[in-house]
Amino acid sequence: QKNSCVLPEDLKNFYLMTDGFQMTWSVKTDDTPMPLGSMVINSVSKLCRLGGSSMYALPNAPTLADLEDDTDEEGNGDKPEKPHFDSRSLIFELDPCNGNGKVCLVYKHAEPVVSPDTEIWFLDRALYWHFLTKTFTAYYRLLITHLGLPQWQYAFTSYGVSPQAKQWFNMYKPITINTALLSEEADSFVNKLDPNKVFKSKNKTPVLKKKPPSQPPGSQKSMTSAKTSSLAGNSSRK
């Protein structure tokens, strides 16, 4: 109400479920926990608007709107039009990115009436804009899949992440950094699973019991005649 705009439906549903989100995780180096990943969505009270306040505490300091560069050609080719710090756009901070920039919710068309269409943009430390996603839901999925790794938003810029951040990406999310390798070798990141081997039936081979060696027919006849003669001798004695 203060800014005369309506939250997008997916972000509104998110805030109805939870007033912001923050998740951090650490890794152990020499048995000492070191904070690494950070995933943040500002609460409604911290959903501050950018562009109106001064950047510095000095009197007559320039504002972000004063730094607006009108000489940039907007919408060249397939690139979306960049947000403006002046009254043409409404910009709200979603994530301070630990000082590495700002992820912003942007209403690009604020005059004469604020358009309900919003996009998610990344503002780097040099005050350049980089498009991330068209919806908050898509950005939230990006945030989760990138594990909140340091400077992960810079993977969507032309200059990429720093060498130090790239080491963490190689360790925890190599597919993001090695996209060229993925296009050349499609099976390099695919688990090679042979269902025939995994679900192969484990039927045990029945163990055949050894039969006693069969005697030749001639020997059976001789044994039978011997038994008959012995029985006849016993009966004659009786």
TrEMBL record:
Biased composition (Acidic residues): 66-75
Biased composition (Basic residues): 200-212
Bias (Polar residues) ranges: 223-238
Superkingdom, natural source: Eukaryota
Region spans: Disordered: 65-84, 200-238
Name under which the protein is recorded: TPGS2 polyglutamylase
